[in-house]
Each structure stands twice: as C-alpha cells, then as structure tokens.
C-alpha cells in the first residue's frame, strides 16, 4: 500500500522499461512489449488516482480550516487563504499541518484529544524534514475527512487503513455492525481478501470471536499474538498475528466493533496510541449510524418497532416495562425513560401505573443501582444486545424512604433502540408448594387422602412412584394394603388399621411393600383420622415414606458395629498378651542388682497406652567369666510383634555372650541373627562388658545413643562409635571402645524414650539429661528416679534406663 500524498505533490511517472539490444523474435516481442506498456499504464493510473484522493482529502482539511478562519476573522475566502499561508510560514509548518491544528483547536473532540496526547508525549520537532511522515493530527483528520466523504463503510475501512492505521503498522482492518440480537455483520474491510470477507460476512449470536469479546466486555480487547488458543476471526490464523478489537458506540449503545490486524505480535501500546484507536472507533460508530447496513431499519421502521413492542408488552401475562435511553447534553447515557408499563404491571411498592410511567428508571427505582445491579444489567443489554436472565433477583423500591423488597425472576432484552424489562414476582403460595414438592421428592415421601364416605382415594405423584404404579393406576385404599405387604407384616398393619379407623387415633407403622415390578421396599406409614364436629370419621390422610435406604444402612451399620466390636476385642486381647509378656520379662520395677565392684539399678517405664506396647529392653547378668553383661535395646514397632522380637534378641545376646567374645563381635553375630533368622527385625542396641578386676568397660553400639558417664560434678556422653542398627544389612562392622570407671563414677544406658521430644533437637534433650544427671544424689536409685521425673520426652514410647555405679 502506498503512503498518502500531500496536496500539490505530483504522482511519479511510471518508468519506461529499457529496451534490450539483440535479435528480435517476431510476434512474441511485440506482444510482450504491448502487455508491459499496458501494465505500466494501469499502475500509473492507480498511482494518480491515489494521489488525487490524498490531495482531495488534504484540500478538504485546508478548506475546513479556511472556513474556521473566515468565521473567526470575519473576512473573505481570499483573505482567509492568505492568513493560512502566512501563519504556516511563521510557524515553519505546511498548510496541511496548520489546518489540522486549527481544526483540533476548534472542535475539541476525541480526535483532537488523541492527537494532542500524542504531541504532548512526543513533542513537535523544530524543523521537520521535507520527507517526514505526516503527524498524528494530519493522519487522524485526513482519515476523518475521507470517512465523512466515503459512500459506504467499505470506503471508510480503506481510508482508516490508508491514513491512520497503516502508519501504525497495521495491515488490515474490519468494521463490524452489531445487530439487535448481538449478531455481527461485516460492513467494511481493507487488507483482507474478498474470499475471506465472504466467509466472515455474518457472525451469529453466541459465537466467541475477537470482535465478540469487545462487544461483550464493552472495552478494547488486545491480543498480542493470535494463537490457536485465542478466539477465531477474519483473516489467516497466524500465531504471530496481533489483533485489537474496539467497541464503536455512542450514547451508551454499541453499534459495532472496529477490528485491526497487525502482521506481527503487538506489544503493549502507549496510552496516546490507544486514544487514537478509540477515536477511530468513535468515527466508525458515526459512520454506522449515518450509513446503516443494508437491511437496517429506518427511523420510521424503528418507530413501528416501538409501537409493536408496546403492543407485545400489553399482551404479556407478566409485568413489563418498555425503556428508552436517556442521554445528557453531551450524548452520554445517564438513565432510561420508562416509556410504557403494560396492563399486568404490578409495582413492588404498590404504586399505580401512572406513578411509574414516564419517569426515569433510577428515579422510580433508585435501589436498582444498588446490590441487585439491575440498572447495570439493563445498561449492558442496551449496549451489547445480549439478553439477560436471572432468577430470584431482589427488587427494592423506596416508599416514604422505607425500602420494600420483593423477589422476582428478571428478563431483559433489546428491541431496536428500546429495552424490554419483564419481572415475575414470586408468589408465596406457589413458592411454598414448590418447596413442599422438593421436600417430598428428596425425602421420598408420598401423601394421600381417603374419603371414608365416598371411598375416593387421592394420591400425589410421589406416592405412585413409591408404589411402582403409573399415574393412571387406581390408588390402593388402606383396607387393601395388607394384600400388597409382606405376610409377616400383617399383624402390624392390622394393629395400625384398628387404631386409625376404630379407635380414631393417629397411628404409624413400618412394613415391607411388594410392588408390581417385584421390588420390595421398606415403608413407614403415618396417618391420622379427620373428624367432624360430632366426632364422626370423615376421611383419612397421611403419608408414606420409603425408608429402604435407611433400613439397609441400619442393617449394614449393625453388622459393622458387630465386626468392630469383635476387632476391638481381638486387639485388646493382643495388647493384653503383649503387655503381660513384656512385664513378665521386664517388670516396671526391679530390686537393685549387686555385682562384684558394681551397683546396678534399672528402671522400665512402659508406654502410657496399652496399644503402644513397645520393644524396649535391658539386661544385666554376670557371665561365667565373671564379667558383667550390660545392654539396652529398642525394637522398631509396637505390639505383640515388637514384644516377641525383643525376647528373641535378648535371649540370643545372652547365649552369644557365654562364648567370651567382645561387645563388637557380639553385635556382629546379633546382626546376623536379626537379618537372617528372624522376620527382618530392626533394632538399636548398646552393649557393654565390665571387668571387675581391671575396672574397665568395653562397649559397642548398633545405631543406639551412646551412654552418659557421670564423674563427680561432670556429665559427658561417650564417643559416638561406628555401628549400624541391627538387621538393616547382612554384613555390618561395629567399632569397640573402652572406658575405665573410677570409684563413684556412674554410667547411664537408656533408650530414646527418655530424651525424644517432638519439635526439639536431640542435642538439646541430651544437654537437659546431662544437666539433670550431674546433680548429686544419695543413692543410685534416687538418681534414676530423678531422671525419669525430670524427663521432657513426649513421644508416649517405652523407656529403659540402666545405671551402673563403680564402688
């Protein structure tokens, strides 16, 4: 596309093709030369036409500026032309630029604001080069002039692309007209092929396109890159193609959409560019109003539509309002005038039709702009043409400054230039009846009434469904009910009927109903007699309720309760056996154990709950070699399995210790037992052998906490020797250490139940243990009791504590 030319510019002449020397082929060269000259002539004529159009549009702006000067200077046309030329020379700009400035200052419309914002941000150069592109003011005013002179919207689209949007990088533009049913019609396009425009000539309501988004949101919608995930639209779907759609409307009503296409992704545009595009959309709205689409209603037709809408509203059974837009002096939508109220109109506040007809909507119903958003819904329908439906919307009217609310179903639609608002006030009796029907359906309840005098039986629909009968079947009287029930329930039904019909008291019963389809339902029946003033029986009324689901739930619940009780009994028995087994081997308290050169005391604290019976254990025994075996261990897990595993390892270690092997070797053998000869037991153990003669303790650990040595007023942990927990690997290596105990030294061996605390570091708990352990006590027993009393552990685990004091 060629850029527009300024007035006075001469179109370039078509270049004459150069002759090629050489031999000439008869006929073919003459034919080629003729076609070339014809193509050059056509191109030259096209260029001249474009230049003529640009010059004409430029002259239109200059003539309009001359008219403004004639009015302001009260001079003639010749003097105005001289003044315009002189002012242009003084300002150092072309007459076309000055004409655009004069028009902007005189009009102060949206185009002038957009051009002013652009100049305010970019600034006007002191001396523009001769070949500089036209300014924003010239482009916008030239586009406006060409659009106003255009014969149809097709020419308007071409003018917008050539003068205003092309310099912004756009390559195509489409102008859509919005129908009263929110459909879209392509009324003008430029840059798209005729085939593509033919495929997109009409978009039905509800199809989500780029233009539809702008129509629904009533705001400009930008798509930086139109990918497969974005809505479809006219033109080739290229992932790099950028789109923008701007609603075109005046007076609160959107009459169309301006859609612009770029061949590349569109980055966020500055505000001044957005203002220019919005100004062009407003120009399109003016074009669509003054040059309606073929088939659009004329003013007389619109008046006929309004009269037909009034007649239609009068024929409706629901209250209806016909609304017309109310514009202020600047043409902005501020309210809607109530043009007509139909014969069925009922005001929520009880006012007559004459008090509402002719008033503004917000004057008659000021609360419409409040919580219900009724006014916003009417405004949106008028703008976009999309109908609005809502159930149970609150309508509020002010009567003597007292708000009166009513619940109604709302329907709003646009017809031409008017809006039809319907509401159906919710009837309280109908609402309660609907609630009752839903309650009966959800509760599987069916009601009945039986006239004793005439024998007529009336059932509701739910009762036919419960009995498995079609609605046309004959209802079953109460006296015939035993024939439709399980034989075992005959006695209960007989008692029910005697209480109801002979004693004339309310009664209820439950029975099994045999339906014609062979299904048995558990039913609860409740009924009462209806008596006259003389206590004569007139009728029976009541309800059936299908309690089959409840019955089977109760049966399943009873079975579950029995199974749960049995499981709880088994679990309690297992825990009791585990606890007995544990206490038999390691009682919670044990008398002091005296060995050569040692005082030994032990404490065992079981878990607080029986179901957490653990596998903590200890042992202190004198071996045949007169060495003393000291050990503390912890089996992973709880329950009977942990207790039996503890017995296995404890007895295995005793047996292995008779061999005279050292602690490291004993743990190596015990690891083989745990890994290969058990059901994959894992455990931690600390094991020591005390020699009374040498007063030395050789010890090793398998993943367990090291012992604590208390000497005088000092308490320290022994070194962290190498050793993996038992049962984890088939082959494990254990490191052995040795410590000499002086007279009065105390060695503490314990399980993690003494120190573990949730949310605290293990080292903090060990520091607290050592601070408690170094406090002097009279006896070893008192020291162990003090450690258990001041322990901060909160894991509900077993605790084993062994104290050894050298004498």
TrEMBL record:
Q: Does the keyword Hydrolase apply?
A: yes
**Entries under InterPro entries matching the protein:** ANTAR, Bact_Sigma-Reg, GAF, GAF-like_dom_sf, PAS, PAS-assoc_C, PAS-like_dom_sf, PPM-type-like_dom_sf
Q: Which CDD domains match?
A: PAS (cd00130)
Q: Which Pfam families match?
A: ANTAR (PF03861), GAF_2 (PF13185), SpoIIE (PF07228)
Domain PAC: start-end pairs: 507-559
UniProt name for this protein: SpoIIE family protein phosphatase
- Tell me the Gene3D superfamilies matching this sequence: 2.10.70.100, 3.30.450.40, PAS domain (3.30.450.20), PPM-type phosphatase domain (3.60.40.10), Winged helix-like DNA-binding domain superfamily/Winged helix DNA-binding domain (1.10.10.10)
């Amino acid at each position: 596309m060629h850029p527009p030319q300024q007035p006075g510019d001469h179109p370039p002449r078509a270049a004459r093709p150069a002759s090629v020397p050489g031999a000439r082929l008869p006929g073919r060269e003459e034919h080629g030369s003729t076609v070339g000259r014809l193509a050059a002539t056509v191109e030259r004529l096209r260029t001249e036409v474009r230049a003529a159009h640009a010059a004409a549009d430029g002259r239109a702006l200059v003539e309009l500026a001359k008219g403004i000067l004639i009015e302001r200077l009260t001079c003639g046309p010749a003097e105005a032309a001289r003044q315009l030329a002189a002012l242009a020379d003084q300002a150092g700009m072309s007459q076309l630029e000055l004409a655009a400035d004069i028009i902007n200052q005189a009009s102060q419309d949206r185009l002038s604001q957009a051009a002013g914002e652009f100049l305010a941000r970019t600034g006007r150069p002191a001396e523009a080069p001769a070949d500089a592109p036209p300014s924003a003011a010239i482009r916008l005013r030239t586009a406006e002039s060409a659009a106003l002179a255009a014969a149809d919207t097709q020419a308007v689209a071409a003018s917008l692309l050539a003068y205003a949007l092309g310099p912004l990088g756009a390559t195509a533009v489409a102008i859509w007209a919005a129908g009263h049913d929110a459909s879209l019609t392509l009324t003008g396009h430029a840059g798209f092929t005729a085939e593509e425009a033919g495929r997109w000539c009409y978009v039905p309501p509800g199809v989500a396109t780029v233009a539809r988004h702008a129509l629904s949101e009533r705001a400009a919608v930008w798509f930086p890159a139109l990918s497969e995930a974005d809505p479809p639209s006219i033109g080739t779907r290229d992932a790099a193609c950028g789109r923008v759609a701007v609603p075109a409307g005046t007076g609160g009503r959107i009459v169309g959409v301006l859609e612009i296409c770029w061949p590349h992704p569109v980055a966020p545009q500055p505000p001044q560019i957005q203002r220019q595009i919005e100004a062009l959309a407003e120009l399109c709205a003016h074009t669509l109003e003054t040059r309606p689409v073929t088939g659009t209603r004329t003013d007389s037709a619109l008046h006929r539509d309004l009269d037909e809408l009034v007649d239609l509203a009068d024929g409706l059974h629901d209250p209806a309002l016909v609304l017309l837009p109310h514009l202020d002096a600047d043409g902005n939508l501020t309210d809607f005038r109530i043009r007509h109220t139909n014969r069925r109109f009922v005001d929520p506040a009880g006012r007559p039709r004459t008090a509402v007809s002719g008033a503004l909507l917000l004057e008659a119903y000021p609360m419409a702009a409040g919580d219900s958003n009724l006014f916003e819904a009417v405004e949106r329908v008028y703008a976009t043409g999309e109908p609005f439906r809502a159930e149970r919307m609150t309508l509020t009217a002010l009567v003597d400054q007292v708000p009166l609310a009513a619940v109604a179903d709302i329907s709003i639609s646009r017809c031409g230039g008017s809006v039809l608002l319907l509401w159906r006030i919710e009837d309280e009796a109908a609402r309660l009846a609907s609630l009752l029907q839903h309650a009966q359906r959800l509760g599987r309840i069916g009601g009945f009434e039986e006239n004793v005098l005439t024998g007529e039986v009336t059932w509701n629909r739910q009762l036919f469904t419960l009995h498995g009968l079609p609605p046309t079947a004959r209802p079953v009287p109460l006296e015939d009910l035993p024939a439709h029930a399980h034989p075992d329930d005959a006695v209960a039904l007989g008692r029910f009927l005697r209480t109801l019909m002979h004693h004339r008291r309310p009664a209820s019963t439950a029975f099994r109903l045999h339906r014609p389809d062979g299904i048995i339902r558990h039913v609860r029946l409740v009924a009462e007699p209806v008596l006259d003033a003389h206590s004569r029986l007139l009728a029976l009324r009541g309800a059936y309720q299908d309690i089959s689901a409840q019955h089977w739930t109760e049966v399943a619940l009873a079975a579950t309760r029995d199974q749960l009780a049995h499981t709880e009994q088994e679990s309690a028995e297992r825990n009791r056996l585990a606890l007995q087994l544990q206490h038999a081997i390691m009682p919670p308290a044990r008398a002091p154990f005296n060995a050569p050169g040692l005082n030994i005391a032990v404490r065992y604290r079981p878990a607080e709950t029986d179901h957490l019976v653990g596998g903590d254990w200890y042992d202190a025994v004198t071996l045949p070699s007169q060495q003393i075996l000291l050990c503390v261990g912890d089996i992973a897990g709880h329950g009977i399995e942990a207790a039996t595993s503890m017995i296995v390892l404890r007895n295995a270690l005793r047996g292995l210790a008779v061999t005279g092997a050292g602690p490291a070797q004993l743990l190596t053998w015990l690891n083989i037992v745990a890994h290969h000869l058990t059901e994959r037991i894992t455990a931690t153990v600390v094991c020591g052998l005390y020699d009374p003669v040498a007063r030395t303790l050789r010890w090793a650990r398998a993943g367990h906490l090291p012992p604590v040595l208390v000497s005088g007023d000092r308490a320290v942990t022994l070194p962290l020797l190498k050793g993996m927990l038992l049962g984890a690997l088939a082959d494990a290596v254990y490191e052995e250490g040795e410590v000499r105990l002086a007279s009065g030294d105390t060695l503490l061996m314990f399980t993690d139940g003494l120190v573990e605390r949730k949310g605290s570091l293990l080292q903090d708990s060990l520091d607290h243990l050592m601070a408690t352990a170094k406090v002097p006590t009279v006896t070893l027993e008192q020291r162990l009791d003090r450690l258990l009393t001041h322990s901060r552990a909160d894991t509900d685990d077993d605790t084993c504590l062994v104290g050894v004091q050298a004498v």
